[in-house]
Q: What sequence folds into this?
C-alpha cells in the first residue's frame, strides 16, 4: 500500500480457483486500461498446473511475483488437479506513483484499446436487442460504483 499509494487503490479482491476449474475467455470492465485502471495479480498459492491465458498466450504466475494486467484484453484461467490457485488482486488507478504499472502509449496499446471498444460495442448492441434489462442494470451498477 505504501508503494502504490493508499488513494490509488480502488479495489482489493481475493480470487480462488478450485482444483480442476476453469474460467472462460472474457474481457473485464474492471481493471481496464481504457478507464485508467490496471489490475495487479499477486499469487498467494499456486501450482505448476495453474495458468492464466492472456490473449491466448499461456503464463504460469509463481508465488513471490506480481503481475500487472489490463483486463480489457482477452484472458482466461485454468487450474489442474493439484490444489487451489489463490491470488490477491489489487485494482489501481493511474497516477504518478503507479505509472510504472501502466504501458506507455504506443501503436500497439492504441490498437488494443480499439479492439476492446469494438468488441464491447458489439456486446452492447447484442444486449440491447436480447436483454435490455440486463444492460440497463449493468450501466446503473457501474455508475453507482464510480459515484
A:
Amino acid at each position: 500500500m505504501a508503494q502504490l499509494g493508499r488513494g490509488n487503490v480502488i479495489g482489493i479482491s481475493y480470487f480462488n480457483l478450485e482444483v480442476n476449474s476453469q474460467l472462460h475467455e472474457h474481457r473485464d470492465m474492471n481493471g481496464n486500461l481504457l478507464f485508467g485502471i490496471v489490475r495487479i495479480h499477486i499469487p498467494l498459492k499456486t501450482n505448476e498446473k495453474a495458468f492464466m491465458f492472456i490473449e491466448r498466450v499461456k503464463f504460469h504466475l509463481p508465488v513471490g511475483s506480481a503481475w500487472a494486467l489490463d483486463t480489457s484484453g482477452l484472458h482466461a484461467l485454468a487450474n489442474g488437479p493439484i490444489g487451489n490457485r489463490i491470488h490477491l488482486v489489487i485494482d489501481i488507478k493511474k497516477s504518478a506513483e503507479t505509472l510504472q504499472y501502466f504501458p506507455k502509449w504506443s501503436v500497439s496499446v492504441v490498437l488494443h484499446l480499439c479492439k476492446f471498444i469494438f468488441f464491447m460495442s458489439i456486446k452492447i448492441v447484442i444486449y440491447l436487442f436480447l436483454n435490455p434489462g440486463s444492460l440497463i442494470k449493468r450501466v446503473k451498477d457501474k455508475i453507482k460504483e464510480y459515484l
About this structure: The helical segments are 107-130, 132-146. Strands lie at 9-17, 22-26, 37-45, 50-54, 57-59, 67-69, 75-79, 85-93.
